[in-house]
Amino acid sequence: MYEPQKQQGMHFTLIIALFAVSLLPACSASDELPRLKTEVLASHKLDNMLNETSGLVCTAQTAVTTNDSGNDAVLFEVNDSGDIVRQHALDFANKDFEAVTADDDYFYIGDVGNNKGHRPYVSIRKVDRKTFQKVKTLRLTYTDNSPKTNIPYAHDYDAESLVNRTDHLILFSKSWASQQARVYRIEKDAKDQTLTAIGTVKGLPGVVTGADWDAANHRYVLVGYKSSAIGLFKPFIATVSPDWHVQGMAMLEGFGQVEGICVRNASEVLITQESSPLNTARIARLAIE
Q: Would you indicate the residue range of the signal peptide (predicted)?
């Protein structure tokens, strides 16, 4: 729930994060990427209960999102206008929810936030779509991760982007330090997994905060941002090939801390942004080519 005192503390932490990111080198390769054509078809303020929305997955009639750390463990169904149409309480705690995806039978909730780098492992909860009960916890450990020596907001063992790919999941890292998103394959039923990157995405103009698979166009669609020490976000959207090459990229002018994306159909996506000092939480429908 929204708590002003909690928000002040989060904003202080955010300023630290923004300062750290502002020290990172710019990705000049992004200037050479093919231009992705986008158009904002609609944009609406999200309900205040979703000021800290993080993660998004499209369903048949709605989209599903959740809030990140410090909030109740709840899945929210929202319509394209940003209204909450249903809430589903979950039977486990929210340490740092940052992503949600789904297949026909299950939601996969990524409790994978690790900005400070101190978590020795993160997890994904497999949740029945009919009962909203947890059926399995996938415990994930990164190869070569060193929680005791990681520098907050300056390491590569953080993530916010989880994608369903038929018989497995794909996790994109936030990669504060290298600015090259690492790609991990996650098995849907293995309880304990040690993750080694199967690829990297190079040349993006910031960290990746949301992703989905565009089956019609056989590509991933990613969102993220580069941020500054004074609280300014420069969000982007990009398309990435199955072998992790950036195909096209566009800056999302008029948006802020973009946190989630889901593919609605062959030519449209939904995106969400979290509330920040300069922006309200919003959901938007975009056309992309």
A: 1-29
3-state secondary structure of 242: coil
Cα 154 from Cα 18, distance rounded (Å)? 11
3-state SS, residue 88: strand
**Which CATH number goes with the domain that contains 83?**
2.120.10
* pLDDT in the model for residue 31: 59
Write out pLDDT tens, residues 217-256: 999 999 999 987 777 899 999 999 999 999 999 999 999 9
- 154-198 confidence digits (pLDDT tens): 999 999 999 999 999 999 999 999 999 999 999 999 999 999 999
Spatial distance between the Cα atoms of 221 and 223, rounded to a whole number of angstroms: 7
- Whether 268 contacts 58, CB under 8 Å: no
Phi, psi of 240 (to 5 degrees): -130, 135
Whether the pLDDT of residue 19 is over 60: the answer is: no
Count up the domains in the chain and report the number: 1
Give the structural domain span for 218. Answer: 4-288
Whose tokens are 């206008």? That residue is 81
Distance between CA atoms of 60 and 161, rounded to whole angstroms? 21
Q: Are 74 and 66 in contact (CB under 8 A)?
A: yes
